[in-house]
Amino acid sequence: MTPTTTFAALKLSEPIQRALAEKKYTTPSPIQARAIPHLLEGRDLMGCAQTGTGKTAAFALPILQRLADHPKTPAPYKPRVLVLTPTRELASQIGESFEAYGKNLRLRHTVIFGGVGQNPQTRALRNGVDIVVATPGRLLDLTQQGYIDFDAVEVFVLDEADRMLDMGFAPDVKRIMARLPEKRQSLLFSATMPRPIMEIADRLLRDPVKVEVAPAASTVDRVAQHVCHVDRRDKTRLLAHTLNEHREGLVLVFSRTKHGANKLVKHLGQSGTRAEAIHGNKSQSARERALEQFREGRVRVLVATDIAARGIDVKGISLVINYDIPNEPESYVHRIGRTARAGADGKAIAFCDPEERPWLRDIERLIRIEVPVIPDHPFAIAAPGPERHSSSRPQAREGFRRPSYGSRPAPGGRSRRGRSRSRN
Ligand code: AMP
């Protein structure tokens, strides 16, 4: 299907278009253009897309439109739409999207996740809501307590299904799916489609339309990426140096562990840079506070672990630093996708110690880019192997100039799916 180019052409109603205009969305993103017409017709959908592609609006807009076209007073505890997403941050952001796009409609939604008191959530459910956006654990909890009933669910969205499984939510998701009414519209979104996702898709979807957009490389293309080879013990100093060289915009730093994230915040504080950490051990309110300070620029540096950073949608992140190289190459793509939001270009720098080099190679295979090396930073150690970038090659330093990306074919050999990776 040829993507349609305006929201009006997608047959979204005037109140929705007005809300979109206010958000300054002029053109539907490819996934929106491809998915919305089918979703408005009531088709099931399998969307292969990651955060950053506009997938939230791709499902939220047709859902709002359908609810508004067939208004009903929502019965207590019986939502008409259920969106399941893996993290609290994603749930909040999806809730905010429904709020923004639906601001001219008379629809009610609520967001449900753990780590906070359940009373406001049960109160909202008792009052009746059209849309529930939830993480699986708390949702099941409330279901078992009788606070939510899926009988009236007309549309079910399983968002970030691969991440959901990575986080161990498969049993919860299956239990929730088992409670859904037979007659419903179902949507599944996932950045990757490994076999367990296909199995869930088979159970969930009926004759789905398949939409695949923005393969990893398209986000990656817009980010000027570099790697610094460095000994582990010098990474903290390299971080201070990099932050000193890069004074514009917000900086998101990724740490593999929660403990590492806390340590970095402390180190940065000692060297005079205010930073905040977000990770799974922080309370919901602490995470929200940190995110808010970062969003407003009161704290320039946010240190995050992968799960906590999932779906962070903050404009103005000009640099992503991979303080640790992720051992899952897909995480790298998700991480650097936090910059280069909504069409903007961004920068990413990875700090790679000798032990992390195999992970860097995995990443380069996935993104089909040889990440250019910054050879002359103060803590540089030799880059590996002659087939990799030699330091005689001209490289950007301060400006972190955009590299000219040579794509290279993914080498054969090990199958990526077949590999086992340790998780943290
Ligand atoms: P998502 O992939 O849903 O996380 O969306 C990524 C970002 O793109 C969010 O900041 C959205 O607000 C923004 N966005 C989504 N659709 C559009 C659009 N059609 N035009 C401009 N920005 C958009």
Structural write-up:
The protein is α/β, with parallel strands linked by helices and 424 residues long. The chain has two domains: 7-212, P-loop containing nucleotide triphosphate hydrolases (Rossmann fold, 3-Layer(aba) Sandwich); 223-387, P-loop containing nucleotide triphosphate hydrolases (Rossmann fold, 3-Layer(aba) Sandwich). Helices cover 37% and strands 15% of the residues. The protein has 16 helices and 13 strands. It has helices at residues 14-22, 30-40, 55-69, 88-101, 119-127, 136-144, 161-166, 170-178, 195-204, 216-221, 235-245, 258-270, 284-295, 306-309, 329-336, 357-367; strands at 45-48, 81-84, 109-112, 131-134, 155-158, 185-190, 209-212, 223-229, 250-254, 275-278, 301-304, 317-322, 346-352. It has a seven-stranded parallel beta sheet with strand order 3-4-2-5-6-1-7, sandwiched between helices. Strand 10 (275-278), helix 13 (284-295) and strand 11 form a beta-alpha-beta unit. Helix 3 (55-69) packs across helix 4. The chain binds adenosine monophosphate. Adenosine monophosphate binds at residues 25, 27-29, 32, 51-57, 313, 341-342.
